[in-house]
Design brief:
Layout (H helix, E strand, L loop, with lengths): L10 E6 L2 H12 L4 E2 L8 E2 L6 E6 L4 H4 L2 E6 L2 H10 L3 E4 L4 E5 L5 E6 L1
Parallel strand pairs: 1-4, 5-8
Antiparallel strand pairs: 1-5, 2-3, 3-4, 6-7, 7-8
Length: about 110
């Protein structure tokens, strides 16, 4: 049973203390535009042309807000979260379209609906 529909990340998220500075850095380094996110994508900015998408948002205190995170695309989020738990991982923040988890060793990652 495979919960992740694509083995490569669909999004890599970078939290930032200064979002304008971070957006300028990633746009300049990667040669891409980080546009404001659409409502269903959450807060911040991200690329929309190539996969994986690169995102920037304001740094916070949770695992999804304080560390760089790879997000993996899933077709059924509830099923994927169940699989995370079965494999010894932890669901830190369940959501309707995306979730933050930790693997069996405590490393954070995200899952997002395709």
């Amino acid at each position: 049973m495979h919960a992740v529909s694509r083995p490569s990340p669909s999004l890599v998220e970078f939290p930032a203390d200064d979002c304008d500075r971070a957006r300028e850095f990633w746009a300049g380094l990667l040669g891409v535009e980080l546009a404001p996110r659409e409502e269903h994508e959450g807060e911040g900015w991200q690329t929309h042309a190539d996969a994986p998408a690169v995102g920037v948002h304001q740094r916070g205190r949770g695992p999804g807000d304080s560390f760089s995170l790879p997000y993996f695309a899933v077709e059924d989020l509830a099923e994927a979260l169940e699989r995370v738990r079965e494999l010894g991982g932890v669901v830190v923040h369940p959501g309707e379209r995306w979730a933050i988890c930790k693997d069996s060793e405590g490393s954070p990652f995200g899952l997002a609906l395709t």
